[in-house]
């Protein structure tokens, strides 16, 4: 196993003319420096230095390994420093992108509470259902729904088992009744979301024999998910939405869950950084704070949301497998 002290001595020796010079700088014996380099060379099974009584220079293998050693030490020291820092010392600006409904109704109070705990921090919030390009736009953190395919992101789960649920206001149910199965949604007013000019009017439900899709129609379409939620509360129709987004409305009685014998599609919530180098102490602390709040809501999810998919709603229904948009 490579020892941290040996790695540190190697990096320092790379800029010195002799092991004696390194020893004087570190206030140790030259034999200790030589022993450290030999241990490291044994671990790596390469020769790092070409040395003589008068000179010391890196071999080609040593030149190649040096930047990796420096980066490893930098990461270790940065982590050590981060652990020692007092949380009250957090400073700078965090740029956060998040969905409209989640951002306004859940994340905003959590983020403001976090900033209140760290007066040296500033928040720049982008609250929109437009999916931010975290590589091209000035974003430190994106909080997103859905499954991500890009392995270059730092992607941490917030609520991995979150799902969509069907819901409507009591006034809508009194006037129109409620669907007992997803197939019956075709006969109801369903409020739809639009993203980048595409209206999502096919809703997917995972069933035991495959995915069941239903084509829906309704009186309101919007590119703002919070508008769709408000229309549902006003009794305008049925929504198919993240449990996190409407959990407070369900608890207050403003919305009622429908077709509870059927599980909605998975809709995990993730915390994303464009690059590991941006995963600072402030962002790590933010992740932990948001995750704590999210897990509280996740524990309140009705049990049926976690159950296995049932059989199809009616014989002969075609099934398909597809990926829904984030």
Description:
This protein has 326 residues and is an alpha+beta fold. It folds into three domains: 4-84, Orthogonal Bundle (Arc Repressor Mutant, subunit A); 93-154 and 271-299, 3-Layer(aba) Sandwich (D-Maltodextrin-Binding Protein, domain 2); 164-267 and 308-320, D-Maltodextrin-Binding Protein, domain 2 (3-Layer(aba) Sandwich), CATH 3.40.190. The chain has nine helices and 16 strands. The strands form five sheets. It has a five-stranded mixed beta sheet with strand order 4-3-5-15-6, covered by helices on one side. The radius of gyration is 28 Å and the shape is elongated.
* Whole-number total of structural domains: 3
Strand content range: 15-25%
Number of helices: 9
Count of strand segments:
16
Give the strand order, joined by hyphens, for the main sheet.
4-3-5-15-6
The CATH C-level class name of the largest domain: Alpha Beta
Rounded to an integer, what's the Rg over CA atoms? Answer: 28 Å
- The stretches of 5 or more residues where confidence is low (pLDDT under 50) are 308-326
First-to-last CA distance: 43 Å
CATH architecture annotation name of the largest domain:
3-Layer(aba) Sandwich
Write the layout of secondary structure elements.
Elements: H1 4-13, H2 19-26, H3 30-44, E1 49-51, E2 56-58, H4 60-84, E3 92-98, H5 100-117, E4 121-127, E5 141-145, E6 154-159, E7 164-168, H6 170-176, E8 192-195, E9 198-200, E10 202-207, E11 210-215, E12 221-222, H7 225-233, E13 239-242, H8 243-252, E14 256-257, E15 269-273, H9 281-299, E16 319-320
Parallel strand pairs: 3-4, 3-5, 8-12
Antiparallel strand pairs: 1-2, 5-15, 6-15, 7-13, 7-14, 8-9, 10-11, 11-16
């Amino acid at each position: 196993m490579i020892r941290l002290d040996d790695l540190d001595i190697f990096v320092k020796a790379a800029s010195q003319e002799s092991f004696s010079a390194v020893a004087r700088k570190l206030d140790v014996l030259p034999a200790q420096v030589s022993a450290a380099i030999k241990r490291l060379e044994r671990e790596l099974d390469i020769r790092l230095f070409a040395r003589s009584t008068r000179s010391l220079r890196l071999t080609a293998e040593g030149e190649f390994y040096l930047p990796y050693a420096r980066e490893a030490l930098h990461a270790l020291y940065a982590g050590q420093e981060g652990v020692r820092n007092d949380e009250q010392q957090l400073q700078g600006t965090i740029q956060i992108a998040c969905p409209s409904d989640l951002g306004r109704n859940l994340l905003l109070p959590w983020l403001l509470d976090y900033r209140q705990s760290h007066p040296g921090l500033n928040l720049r919030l982008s609250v929109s259902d437009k999916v931010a390009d975290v590589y091209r736009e000035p974003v430190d953190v994106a909080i997103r729904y859905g499954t991500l395919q890009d392995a270059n992101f730092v992607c941490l789960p917030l609520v991995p088992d979150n799902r969509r649920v069907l819901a409507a206001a009591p006034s809508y149910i009194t006037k129109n009744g409620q669907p007992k199965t997803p197939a019956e949604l075709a006969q109801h007013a369903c409020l739809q979301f639009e993203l980048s000019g595409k209206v999502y009017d096919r809703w997917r439900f995972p069933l035991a024999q495959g995915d069941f899709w239903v084509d829906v129609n309704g009186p309101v379409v919007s590119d703002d998910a919070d508008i769709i939620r408000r229309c549902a509360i006003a009794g305008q129709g049925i929504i198919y939405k993240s449990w996190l987004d409407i959990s407070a409305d369900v608890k207050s009685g403003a919305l009622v869950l429908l077709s509870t014998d059927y599980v909605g599609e998975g809709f995990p919530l993730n915390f994303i950084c464009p690059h590991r180098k941006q995963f600072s102490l402030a962002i790590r602390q933010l992740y932990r704070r948001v995750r704590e709040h999210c897990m509280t809501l996740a524990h309140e999810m009705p049990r049926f949301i976690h159950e296995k998919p049932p059989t199809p709603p009616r014989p002969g229904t075609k099934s398909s497998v597809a990926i829904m948009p984030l």
